[in-house]
């Protein structure tokens, strides 16, 4: 943390603070220690983070602190950014707050549920939040990015935002389509801190047609699961399909698929099979679909109905 109270109750930033004076946490009012000298970025720290009520302050690595400091300085050129501003109504302390936008630097992985909960907190105050991740923790494999569930849960208008401390580079990773096995097609661009204040509106994407390589990877992945009840392989077998020559409507990835974990083949095969047998129920389909935990995602009912609509469109257009 960078802001603490001094003995008179006034706010002091860590760079103004002086060794051997007493400083206090603005939230729990317990003593905090000034860390300066050997560290690159002076900051305050609780004796033990668990001492602070409700763990409002995050565990902050030095990388986290330096990212917060850099972004604060950059944003303050054109805006009035507040650092560590305590919002008592929701008991949250965004790293940075500029107008109605919170910026949260989240380098350590936390549960998607927590990301969703905290993002909701901001929304109840009419704010939104951009989560900034550690770029070095983002896994890239050739033309694909393979984000963890935690990273995915932070999506803001279909994009992930990262910071790289070494070169002070912010990046925006727009996630286009999930092509199965955790891989996403993406577009990455560098951006300056100022772009954190933009709307980042979503452009509607075309459907993506999977190529032979994509299909092969998916099938191989399912075979490696070694489960006799593997839905993809079971439906392909039961429907008498040839994995190397699947019906065309199974090969397209639609926009609504971003909200589910089922592979692009799996949920379409489920519908194809259930429709052929005349056994499709919304209830059954809902149980089959595994929703992702993403902040700001549409309601589950909406996703289910969009998927059904997508399948119908694909089926009718083949
Ligand atoms: Zn505290």
From TrEMBL:
Tell me where on the tree of life, at the top rank, the source sits. Bacteria
The Competence protein CoiA nuclease-like domain extends over 60-178
Q: Using the record's annotation, list all stretches that form the Competence protein CoiA-like N-terminal domain.
A: 17-52
Q: What is this protein called?
A: Competence protein CoiA
